[in-house]
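Tokens as discussed.
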């Protein structure tokens, strides 16, 4: 079953507020919705890859699924959440950035899937959400709120098929109706 992006900006803020006392989960959510990477690629990040990065820096990653090179970008919110996460959990350079609660191993995508379902349910979102919703949310928000073209989003996603990107963008029938009725030529 396919998952949806989080379309409502207020619901994103509600989730951020919900997670404000949970440094690992907050950082994971922020990193996911601000980078558009697959959860598995986020979970593979080690502390040394991001610890000394400044705002605007990035770290190179090799995508688990495709083997292609991609980048994890550091913005102001991500930088602050990473610093807080490292300090709170006393993480060392070779630790995973998103450790499992059971020790120093990395979280699993199954865990992220469960967490995202719980977060979205907690803020009243109805629909199907999971770990891939973080990736899809980035693309949806870039297109809907910042006017970024689907071609650029496709490049960021490392998609070889534009149709795949269009599905990620979560274009709804209501949105199509609105543009047809509101944008007369």
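Sequence:
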């Amino acid at each position: 079953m396919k998952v949806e992006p989080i379309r409502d900006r207020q619901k994103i803020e509600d989730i951020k507020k919900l997670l404000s006392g949970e440094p690992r989960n907050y950082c994971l959510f922020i990193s996911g919705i601000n980078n558009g990477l697959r959860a598995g690629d986020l979970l593979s990040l080690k502390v040394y890859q991001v610890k000394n990065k400044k705002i605007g820096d990035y770290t190179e990653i090799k995508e688990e699924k495709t083997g292609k090179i991609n980048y994890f970008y550091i913005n102001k919110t991500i930088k602050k959440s990473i610093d807080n996460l490292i300090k709170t959990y006393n993480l060392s350079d070779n630790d995973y950035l998103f450790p499992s609660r059971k020790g120093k191993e990395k979280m699993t995508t199954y865990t992220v899937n469960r967490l995202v379902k719980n977060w979205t349910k907690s803020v009243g979102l109805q629909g199907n959400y999971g770990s891939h919703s973080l990736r899809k949310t980035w693309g949806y928000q870039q297109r809907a709120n910042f006017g970024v073209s689907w071609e650029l989003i496709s490049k960021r996603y490392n998609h070889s098929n534009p149709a795949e990107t269009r599905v990620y963008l979560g274009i709804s029938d209501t949105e199509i109706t609105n543009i047809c009725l509101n944008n007369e030529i």
